Amino acid sequence: MRATMRHLPLAALLLATACAHGGPRAGAAAEAAPADRAAAPADYFPLAVGNAWVWEDQSPGRPAGQAAASRTVRILERTADGFFRDSERGELRASGECLRDRVRQLLCRPLAVGTTWKSVVAVGSTEKYEIVGAGERVETPAGRFEGCLRVRSVNAAGPVADLVAEITYAPGVGPVRIETFAVAGGKAAPQLKALLKSYHLEGK
Question: pTM for this one?
């Protein structure tokens, strides 16, 4: 079973379509403190015009022996209502309580394991979110990141199957690992895996 585009969170959507090579200069890996209950969602996804992230596709379905493709997502502008629009036509905005796109709440306070919320993404389609990891260490081609938050979302992809996405956010950097799975009959089939290859943040 393949993931459907409408079921993927925004960050996963950026990786699930066709990949392109190239990207900005690499940033230094963040060595940040573990997750703090008082921290805000914006601390885990810096939004500013010019910020850019390069992702490396390490999905299990790519042809054997083929070099990992990369994809760049860059924030291009801020809309009149405060959303940051990127090069893939995604739009994000961070309030005091949640990081969201036009449809979903992607990361919400309190930033602690066990926090849950829901987003209605279409008629009859609700995504369930939970913070399942905090203070985690993640190794990526861009370096090692400390104090990360891991968020799991679940959406019914059929009568007996779910689409599960896990996005791991590093403080001061943004998403550093994205994975999606199709789950049916108690078995999880990996679909998408992307790791941060490099990034550029304005003013850093």
Answer: 0.83
